[in-house]
Amino acid sequence: MKRLANVLIVTAFACTLFAQNDRVAEVQGQVIDMLGRPVAGGEVVYRNVDIARVYRTRTGKNGKFDIVGVMLGTYQVEITGPTGEHILSTKRSVFDGDQQVLNAIHVDLSIVPTRASLAPFKGPSAQQIEGETWRKVQDHTLTKAEMAELREENAAFVHYNEVASEAKAAIKTQEWPRAQELLGQLAAIAPYMWQVYQNLGTIASNRGLYAEAVAAYEKGIQVVEYDDALSKDRQRLNLVRAQMLIGEGEAYGAWGQLDSAANEYRKAAEIDPHPALAYIHLCVAEYNTGHAGAALDDCATGIAADPRHSEFYQILGGIQMNLEKYREAIAIYDKGARLALATLEVVRNSTRSTVPLPADAYSITAMEQTLTRQMMPEGEGSAFYKSRAGQMLLSEGNAYFQLRKFKQAADLFARAAKLHEYPALAYFNLCATRFDLGEWKAAVEACDRAIAGDSGMADAYYAKAAALFGEGARQGKFKATQEALSALQAYLELDPNGSHSREVQAMLGEIPAKR
Q1: Which of 39, 51, 306, 397 sits 20 to 30 Å CA-CA off 284?
Q2: Cβ–Cβ under 8 Å, residues 480 and 472
Q3: Contact 38, 59 (CB under 8 A)
Q4: 23-70: pLDDT as tens digits
Q5: What is the DSSP string of 376-443?
Q6: Cα separation of 364 and 232, whole Å?
Q7: For the chain, how far is it from start to end, CA to CA, in angstroms?
Q8: 216-225: per-residue pLDDT in tens?
């Protein structure tokens, strides 16, 4: 009899199997989810707090459960969903006799006031709604109107999470039309969720839908103030606003509305706690709208605000080159290239680690939010900085070339060729510079390297042939070599109507007379 007393028997006759001093009772209940649907397959566990006695069962299709033969006492009750998600943790006493009615547990998640903020769904009225007294009184009997309101709110949370899951999957697989459609649905469910509009703006802009992108960013900027956490941190709030203003500016710029783009960048720079990027964007916009002086000032301000980004120097140097301010460009490119090379060494010598990003209760996930970031942080790997350094060394060499300081230009082109992602270009510039220095043999070697890197570079064949002719003339050899003839023929095959085609034809025309 004692052995049987330790076994849970769920039949109507179970009580007859217990000794008379083991008083038992029946517990039952029902579990309803946030949409008002029965939770089937959920696990119900009663754990006696005084003795090692545990009772388990699962909810049926109707969400109900029933355990017969539960010893009287105090229990820790745990209810989880069919996939293990937490539903309820509570301490309950089990009674017998007429008091068994107190053993019933009815869990209706659809009428449980949410602990999460209603701001994304209710906007400016959320704080007042959340403060209503009846939401905070646990033993309060809800009116029909109150239950209807709670069910509507909980259904919105569930629907949002379901659509958000689909949106995350679409973003991950880069199904942009589908992702944009789902984000639009999220905006309808939670119209005060700024993260949704930010992501909408980014995706629409990437798809070339610039009017839609601008509208999405504008909406995000309007509703961001209703974010509970951001409203308490003005610096973070302005940072988010600035990011969306920059995104809007980029959409305007791609749309061809450059003045509007500059205006958004200017507003971003005024409020951004870290305005460097906003100023760099403004610099480019000002230059493209014909305000070169303002552009130079804005770029300088951006670099002063954060001098750690080598690409900022490259942008300023490019503008100075276009304005034929070669000496200023040389100084800026030199700083940028040194910074890129120094960062390259740090990256090569360091072990990168991944730091988890903080989760956000309503965002598409912190990782997907990086979609909206307008500039990736420095640290993209050694290839990034190697290429950046090579590009600036090449540009610096071009500036020296324009000043006819060919020796300095040649040194920079040689360095650039070892770093540039397209070394053929650097080698061709080196070839041309060596040619202008009268270093014919070195010019041929550089052109050969350019051709090895890109056999379709027609001008490299012309420069090589010219250098071979020059070397031959210096040595008193007026007969064209087969190597020179092959280079001239290769040029015409690649670019028969090119800018040097007349010179090539003339050189070929002179060859027979000099044989």
Answers
A1: 397
A2: yes
A3: yes
A4: 899 999 999 999 999 999 999 999 999 999 999 999 999 999 999 999
A5: PPS-S-HHHHHHHHHHHHHHHHHHHHHTT-HHHHHHHHHHHHTT-SSHHHHHHHHHHHHHHTT-HHHH
A6: 22
A7: 123
A8: 999 999 999 9
